[in-house]
Design goal:
8 strands, eight-stranded antiparallel sheet, single chain
Length: 154
């Protein structure tokens, strides 16, 4: 059983906040090349451009930045579908499953990548790197009974 699971009310508030904050974050980040709104809680953010699973429309989503290779944003990134430890996957999870070809903007660098959900073994190997770049990921995993998906984008 998850420690301190998210209530339905918290889940609704989290989804609403993320939706509105994300739009502002994307606008400012793209306008400034990540100089403004390029961090969240002191940790780096990237933007991920993906196609909507249902709409097919392209959209940018701000996510925590976890590099595959330190100091080389062109090598790719690891993205974590945590949604703060919510009981359900974030909507963008389904976008990646259906349309894995994406673009990631980290600061002013934009690279085309392909996302793939990692295996349980690979997640166990990558998880410490994810937590190093954004420590709350560990708390989020403890907060939910779902296995938080991790994607390698290369």
């Amino acid at each position: 059983m998850a420690e301190n699971p998210m209530t339905e009310k918290e889940y609704a508030r989290t989804k609403a906040f993320v939706k509105h904050f994300a739009k502002l974050n994307v606008f400012v980040y793209r306008l400034t090349g990540g100089r403004l709104m390029g961090t969240f809680q002191g940790r780096e953010v990237c933007l991920v451009k993906m196609k909507g699973a249902k709409s097919g429309k392209e959209k940018w989503i701000p996510l925590m930045y976890v590099p595959i290779e330190e100091g080389n944003p062109k090598a790719g990134a690891i993205i974590v579908a945590s949604l703060g430890g919510a009981p359900k996957h974030p909507v963008w999870y389904y976008n990646l499953v259906k349309h894995p070809d994406i673009e990631i903007q980290y600061k002013s660098d934009v690279v085309k990548l392909r996302a793939r959900r990692v295996s349980a073994e690979e997640k166990a190997r990558l998880w410490p790197t994810c937590v190093k770049h954004y420590p709350p990921f560990d708390d989020y995993q403890k907060r939910t009974d779902r296995d938080i998906p991790v994607f390698a984008c290369e």
